[in-house]
Amino acid sequence: MGNAEQGAPTGEVVIIFSDVQDSTVLWDRAPAAMHTALELHDKLLREVIEDFGCYEVKAKGDAFMIAAKDVTRALQMCFEAQRRLLECPWPGDVLDQPSGAELKSESGTLVFRGLRVRMGIHLGRPRCKPDPTTGRMDYFGGMVNRAARVADAAHGGQVLLSDAAFAQLEPELEIKVADLGVHRLRGLRREEHLRQVQPISHTVRRFPPARTFGIRHATLPKGRSEFFGREDALLELRTKLHLDTSALVILAPTGMGKTRFALRFAELYGDEFDGGVWFCDLAAAQTLEGLLREVARCLGLALSGAAVWRQIEQIGHALAGREEALFLFDNVEQVSRSMGEALEKWIPRAPEARFLITSQRPIAGDNILEYDLPQLGPVAAVELFIRRAQLVDAGFSVDERGRKSVERLVERLRFIPLAIAIAAARVDMLSLSKLEKRLGSRFEALVQPPDLVEQQQVTLHQLGDWSWELLAPWARSALQQCAAFVGGFSLVEARALVDLSAFPDAPTMAKALETLCNQSLLYQVISPEASSVQRYGLYGVVRSQAEQALQDSGQVDDVMQRHAQVYLELAEGLELLVSGPDGLAAVNCLAAELNNLLAVHRRFEELNPVWAARAAISLMPLLIHRGPILLAVDLLENGAAARERLPAEQRLKGLQWRCEVRRLVGRPADAMIDGEEMLRLAKALGDEGATANAWSRLAIVDRDLGDRMKAERRLDRAFQIAQKIDDNALLARILNNLAVFRIEKGEPLQAEIYQRRSLELLRKVGDHQRESSIWCNLGTLCMDRGDLHEADENYGRALQLALGLGHTEAQAMVLSNMGTLYWRLGQRDQAEGLYTRALVLLRESGSRRAEGFVLGLLGGLTGDKGMAERAQQRLRHAREILAELRDPLGQALVDLAYAFIDLAQVRQAHSEGDLVSAKKAKSVADKRLREVRKPLADGDGGSASAADLCDDIRSLLTLLERSFAELPRLKPGVLGGAAAQRRLVPWEEELFDEDTSVDGESLSDDFEG
Hints:
Helices cover 59% and strands 10% of the residues. The chain contains 44 helices and 19 strands. The longest helix is centred in the last third of the chain and has 24 residues, at 888-911. It is globular.
């Protein structure tokens, strides 16, 4: 079948996108050869399309859009295209480039050769319409965009299927399927389940994880209320955000509907922002630190910065990483100044982002536009009243006379949406005429201030007082007890805290909360970490009344104690689950209750220090992994947990966490003091498990301080005790640490024995967190001994566990190790993509040391690819970071990475026949290799070298040695032109400016669908 228009499929259609990997760099380095290569590529694809009866929709540059009638035929076409691409007579200059070089497996099977083409397949029902110019069928709509994003997630030579496409495959096909899991695709709200498919006859190709960042979706609050009026204002707001400003503040007093207006904007226009909409409720924030903490929760960040300015910078990286996203910051008035300070830093770093803010107060800033929320119109106000009244009385309706009465009511209420909703909720108790009379007698006697805003505020508070008087006794009691909650609560916590046993007519708690929501006294609260759990909060006016009523009731102490007991029991139960298979859910639940637990600590710091210390310590699993680490430091050094008069067991637990926190913030001497105090206290208690734990932690601090011999002696003591008491969790941790020492001593086989034994124990206790670390370590051991395929499998296991636990830094470290692995495999483009993805995650997590290391690796890789200028930029940046941290191993890694630039100079000189320059460059590189093998000046007698102590340095040494061994076989013309420039998405531009880059181009830029 040819490409005649009548051959175009319609209805349910398979869409295939293809794209050449790294084509921009190839065009820059070998333009003449690429012209010939693309002619071959286009001819080959068109022949395969025709052979399999598919339909070429259009081609642009090196990308094709293809349609097919069924998935099986589309997949077979892709397989045949990949086979023919290997056999194509590519120009020699293309084959001489790293992105087109011939690559064989260890068994000699051809893996890659020439242009590497990524492909993605999706099935759906697109809109079909012939192109008015060409007459050919074209396809549009969301499914086309999704197909483009599926292809964009693939690597060169890889074929990916969407979930819909995979479901339609014929079961008898001889294929190998790799389930890649669920991914977020850029610009799409619904995630996609991706699968890699290969023909059973050719499965030698190995690919890194899909080219997606796995950033979770934002979630918006649902079901607050219907929206009425202000449609013109929404359109005006849209224009301003797209054309006039990066940050816009919606200004209005309490109760005017700022939040609902902003959410309605997100509902209508959220799809216009490729990075999605991110909602952050800042009602609980009172300081700059609190603001940063809540924004980090919204974005899913682990705030690890040891200074506030570092945290602001870290969040800025994350904002830029969300690309063209809309960030909706709600209830900002109490931190308006802090928000202005933060936005001054964030707007330049994330220029494509848009910030929509609701506040009662202005926010100062050069790039911040104020927008006064217009008053609700009379027609919309009446409709709002009727709809809210129907929530409490389904049969409520009005005739013409009743409508006039409602019009008078909403006018008296100054058209304030919250006031209207509160009044409407009373129609089940009062008729319209009685309601009008009651409101009239109250508000007509009120002397209104001259200012409209003050009138609205006074009206709302006066209405709140009136409404409170009309509540049933059980409802008043429920609300005043709910005032103990901070930052929202769920039905489970409400059942545990709120006691309505004194009211025979009280409904069930679920019904009570539903009733209070319908009466506009409670509203839904969004928790970034537990968006599927229905949570509630009190409107500001209602909260002030409820808090006062609680104080007046004389029950405040009893309610606050119950609140503390509820959350201490919850948090301490979750702490036991953090490292297990339900660890991510446990940490998310802790994060959702962060503000309630902080409230317990604050309320009882003097009244009951033990309770306050328990609250602080229960938060440590959360704060250690997700931050902010500064909050952990404050709680452990200045809060109740720092007091020496606590019960011994409580004191011991606090010392353990403080030792860990002080290590993490770079204070090993202070951590040593805590570790020694732990040891004394554990011995005094006769607790052998705590004693072994103390020895183990002291050993880690010794290693941080450079005393490896002392560290190993202490670790041996811990090991002996842990074996005796049969503590599997502790023994597994100690075995892993012993393995690290064996690696540093050059005993990899013994190290692997320790790690595999540790892995068995971790599986018994269900510690997925450390299991991920072990698999990563095993991957590195396999890579060191040259078993690259097993290394890849081990890293894959580690990455899946890290993803399941939501540990950003752990994910980044696995991706970095995988980058080195794919470099070893000769797949430099994939390696660069992995390093870059790791760098993005590390910057979001604020891991400066790891960021410096990965930048050093990226610099070495870029030098190996012949991009000397960009490599030097990356290495300079890495050196700056590691010098700031005074990290000798990092400095050694950067020095060694420069050898790859020397290597490229050797290649260049060799290809030009300049043996003198080649020998000179090789001599410089040889000197760098010798330096990292020299014993370090510090440490245990200077016996260890940088190569002994650092996996990354050992890997670089291996790569360099192999590269230099291959120099005599180099052909002329290996090296091409300078680094290519291309149009980048905003977060890529930032990385490029700071000396990083991302491999590959985005298909969606070519086909908008």
